[in-house]
Write a structure and sequence with these properties.
By secondary structure, the chain is an alpha/beta fold. The strands form two sheets. A six-stranded parallel beta sheet has the order 2-1-3-4-5-11, with helices on both faces. The longest helix has 17 residues. It starts with a helix and ends with a helix. The relative contact order is 0.12.
């Protein structure tokens, strides 16, 4: 084997544990340079990007496992953050947490997750416990923070202006406008609304946006066509009983704008059970664009909230603040998209006749 062939070979794996010195020796760099690059410390700012990539590539090939305890003691840092979520099993929270994990895994950070279930006592206790366990910052998901935190904090779907808290928020007015302009453009004027649970952080902000945009578009919001979700379950069951309540009121409507996709899918069940066809008799719009929205029956027209990306932005922002790479900002606004599928359609002559005479009565009375 000639020297050039040998030069092209990658690092050799052996039975010994790979250390920083192993990687440094192979790359002919100092152990301090390798450590800075792999730990993404402040000293890494002076290392060229191509050198960082080489270091990470060799560390991966040699299955390098950092000694997290030694690193924590040496740097007096835990490289751990706390995540306080409303629920882990619900689609909203799991998507945001997936985004957080995706970012933190690249940064070599760990995270501890606790569930607050909109209980102020749990939120306070868990916040204190996470600080006691040495987390360097906190991300909250669908939680209302009431006081200035002691650590850098980022809130996903947090809307209170609290000093020291960066809020990652959707542009709700833009989101609502996309949905209501779509329905009005299809000829729908009598629209039923499912309001979010009173404990949900987005409920008040989104309803305010609906009220403002509806007034601007000349769409009347009728109290008899407005129902608030009371259940806290994280399944389509949440939208089923409130839609049944609409139908029991026997008030005419040709479209329904649900608080989220889960409740919209439950509404589809209730409408179909009542003999109403979607979208021929009633158009339905959801919110979030969860993975299951595209597989509903029919597939759901919805406002896309980039939940995975919002989780990534939250983690990127928090780590940058912890490491002093970014200044604190009070708010980061995320733009929505609108996804048109098969649950909405132009108001047909038949639907208009039903609306005038009451589509619910027509279906329920056979």
């Amino acid at each position: 084997m000639n020297p050039q062939q040998k030069k092209k070979e990658g690092p050799r794996k052996n039975g010994n544990k790979t250390t920083l010195k192993t990687i440094a020796a192979y790359l002919k760099l100092s152990p301090g340079t390798v450590s800075a690059a792999l730990n993404n410390s402040a000293a890494a700012r002076s290392i060229p990007e191509h050198t960082k990539r080489r270091i990470r590539a060799v560390a991966g090939e040699l299955n390098y496992l950092p000694n997290l305890i030694a690193r924590t003691l040496r740097l007096r840092r835990s490289f751990t953050i706390g995540v306080i979520a409303e629920e882990i099993g619900d689609v909203y929270g799991s998507q945001v947490i997936s985004g957080i994990e995706k970012c933190l895994s690249r940064q070599n950070y760990l995270f501890l997750t606790v569930i607050h279930r909109h209980d102020p006592r749990l939120l306070e206790n868990y916040s204190r416990m996470l600080v006691e366990r040495g987390v360097e910052g906190i991300i909250t998901v669908d939680a209302s923070i009431l006081a200035k935190p002691s650590l850098p904090t980022v809130a996903v779907a947090g809307h209170r202006q609290i000093p020291g808290v960066t809020n990652i928020v959707l542009d709700h007015k833009r989101a609502v406008r996309l949905a209501l302009e779509h329905l009005k453009g299809l000829g729908h004027e009598e629209i039923a609304f499912l309001q979010g649970h009173v404990f949900s952080s987005d409920s008040e902000v989104r309803w305010k946006a609906i009220s403002e945009v509806a007034a601007e578009l000349g769409i009347r919001i009728r109290p008899e066509l407005t129902v608030r979700i009371e259940s806290t379950v994280s399944t389509p069951e949440v939208g089923y009983p409130v839609t049944k309540e609409f139908l029991a009121r026997r008030e005419p409507f040709t479209a329904l704008f649900a608080y989220n996709d889960i409740s919209a899918i439950g509404a589809l069940w209730a409408l179909r059970e009542a003999g109403l066809r979607v979208p021929q008799d009633v158009s339905v719009v959801g919110f979030d664009d969860i993975p299951g929205a595209a597989y509903a029956n029919p597939d759901l027209t919805t406002v896309r909230q980039p939940l995975l990306r919002m989780g990534e932005i939250a983690a990127e922002t928090l780590v940058s603040q912890i490491e002093g790479r970014e200044e604190y900002v009070p708010e980061i606004i995320v733009e929505p998209e609108f996804v048109i599928r098969k649950s909405t359609a132009r108001l047909s002559e038949r639907s208009a006749q039903h609306e005038i005479g009451n589509p619910c009565l027509s279906a329920l009375d056979g």
